[in-house]
Amino acid sequence: MSAIYRARKLLVDGLGVSFRQSVQLTPVDTAEARAYIKDYWKKIERFHPQDDESLLGVPNTYLVPSFQEDTGFDYNELYYWDSYFMVQGLLDDEHQSLVIGILDNLESLFERFKVIPNASRTYLMGRSQPPFLTSFIFDIYNTYHQDLDWLRSNIEIAKREYQTVWLGVKKPNERLVYRGLSRYYDINYLHALAEAESGWDMTTRFEHKALNYLPVDLNALLYKYETDFAKAAQLLGDTKESNEWKMAAETRKAAMNELMWSKSRGLYYDYNYAKQKRGSVSSLAGFFPMWAGMVDDQQAAALVRSLRRFEHKGGLTTTDNLPLSQQVFGSMPTQWAYPNGWAPLHFIVVQALERYGYHADARRIASKWLKTNLAWFENHQIFLEKYNVVSPEKPPAKGVYPSQTGFGWTNAVFERFCQDYVDQTE
Q1: pTM here?
Q2: CA angle at residue 199 from 221 to 245, to 5 degrees?
Q3: Which uninterrupted H or E stretch holds 387?
């Protein structure tokens, strides 16, 4: 542990795991952790071009979420939304081939199976994960200055995924169910497996009835698809198609604002279309519309005011509290809920704040998250897949599978926040 780090710690307990919020991190403070992250990428690289029992082959090297020796719970498969967040820490010249190769892998799975599955396993083909394909495409297009032919061919794949998977109306993709909005789904038509498609496995958001809900994050992601399709069409010189996609996005936005936006609470909520009422759980999913550019200035201001529901000394909790029903002994663990915070959700919220000009709020949230990650690393020499942001010195609340260390998307978001908020202090 560096002397500088020791000098800057606030010793709130025997572990001493919290920084004073007034202290600005420097590159020196984060150097050891970033060196760990740089070395860790090789541990989670995999190359598996041929099918092997349940593991599906993909053409290029990819990243798995984590690697732990001597455990029966291990990863060797490629995951959809994990991959998107992991590359956020790798958008540089050194990793160009890896990043583009991962996108190609996801698209190869779609070309072969007409879905980007939860992960590249035969037994995970019945569902997908939150759709970030157009965002992945534009990140690569903008970072590596790809040409228009590349953009055209990749966007065409995303259009087919959008239409086939997310706007499907019958098995194996019965997702478009109400007012032009879509739900999470699984081919087995089980609520728990549809909840797993959300990536939030498990959460309090859907009251264990995920098939009955129109999720705000999913539909914001699909709004993002539609605006990305409009942008691509404009770049490709097709103004008519661009306008058609803009109209589709506006139609979705209107339905979402009617069904999901709570003016009194200043937040978006998942919509239970079976009961025709909004869900009651306040969650960071409500910030996805802001990240997607869907909200107006008044809504953005209301969302920023709503941050206080989630903000704690270690960052943002996934939900604003844990319902009493989830505190009963023997109930299903909900790791995507209070008091846990997750890297991808911090990334989404920080990006949303930056998009609407709330730069100080974005920096504050990113700084809290960095300090929580860094304090745990300094004490334990590992990163976690999630953190207890209410009491950062304590372990996170457990989920339905063993807690993982490593950890791909945590490492990536830490590195990205260092690039955006720490490196500029030099």
Answers
A1: 0.93
A2: 15
A3: strand 386-388
Q: Which phi and psi angles does 344 have, rounded to 5°? A: -60, -35
Q: How does pLDDT run across 134-193, given as a tens digit for each residue? A: 999 999 999 999 999 999 999 999 999 999 999 999 999 999 999 999 999 999 999 999
Do the beta carbons of residue 278 and residue 260 sit within 8 Å? Answer: yes
CA dihedral 117, 122, 125, 126 (to 10 degrees): -160
SS3 of residue 106 by DSSP: helix
Residue with tokens 């890297």: 343
What's the rounded Cα separation, in Å, for the pair 321 and 149? 48
Q: Which two tokens stand for residue 222?
A: 């699909």
Sketch the domain layout of the chain as residue ranges: 1-26+310-426
Token duo for residue 339 = 């008091």
Residue 10 clears pLDDT 70, i.e. is over it: no
Partners of 214 in the beta sheet? 271
Residues 29 and 4 sit within 8 Å (Cβ to Cβ): yes
Could you tell me which residues are beta bridge partners of residue 119? 79
Cβ contacts of 373 within 8 Å, gap of 6 or more:
33, 383, 387, 410, 414
Q: Specify the residue for token string 């903000």.
A: 311
CA dist., res. 228 & res. 224, Å (int): 6
Q: Is the dihedral of CA 190, 194, 200, 206 positive or negative?
A: negative
On the CB side of 327, CA atoms within 13 Å amount to 6
Q: Which two tokens stand for residue 366?
A: 């990113």
Q: Which residues pair with 386 in a beta bridge?
A: 342
Separation of alpha carbons 282 and 318, rounded Å: 9
Which stretches within 145-238 are classed as H helix? 148-161, 191-197, 216-235
199 — alpha (psi -120 to 50), left (phi > 0) or beta? left
Residue 392's contacts (CB-CB under 8 Å, 6 or more residues apart) are: 17, 18, 313, 314, 372, 375, 376
3 state SS of 126: coil
- 125-148 confidence digits (pLDDT tens): 999 999 999 999 999 999 999 999
Rounded CA separation 371/10 (Å)? 11
